[in-house]
# Entry
Amino acid sequence: MSVLFDLFSSFFKIGAVAFGGGYAMIPLICGEVVNVRGWLDMAEFVDVIAISQGTPGPIAINSATYVGFKVAGVPGSAVATLGVVLPPFIIMMILGRLFLKYKEVPVVKDMLSGIRPVVVALILCAALSVFSTSVTGVVPAIVAAAAIVAILAFDVDPVLLLVISGAAGLVMYRS
# Structure
């Protein structure tokens, strides 16, 4: 029972303080499940992010579901997912109502302008924390660079890139 409470409270905390969406939550999830709780090592965490990105649904929910399942099976999956979803649900119910009422108030506009750059920083931190365990040589660096160019310059669908890179990984790394 204690592990279920730990899963719920860990992901509740992440859901309560992570603003900016799933990518902004990655460093918080990593810190909690890798560094604090030790439920995953960094390589497993990178795999979770890859799987969470490649499956339908928000990355934070997918990650919570996976980690919860790994730690405590189906009940762990349920409580971790509930933990990460409940705070934003409550917050959005409250803020949504307030935002509709006060969205044109200058102080609200100013606060949101101040939050946006921090969200970008959180996403960048997530990318940098995953980089060292994902890009482990020349070939992965070339693949990462090509993916960036494909997305930014040619508007290639990221899901298509994930499918292609997964197939290439099967060919290149098959043991």
The two ends are 39 Å apart (CA to CA). The mean pLDDT is 88. The longest helix spans residues 59-102.
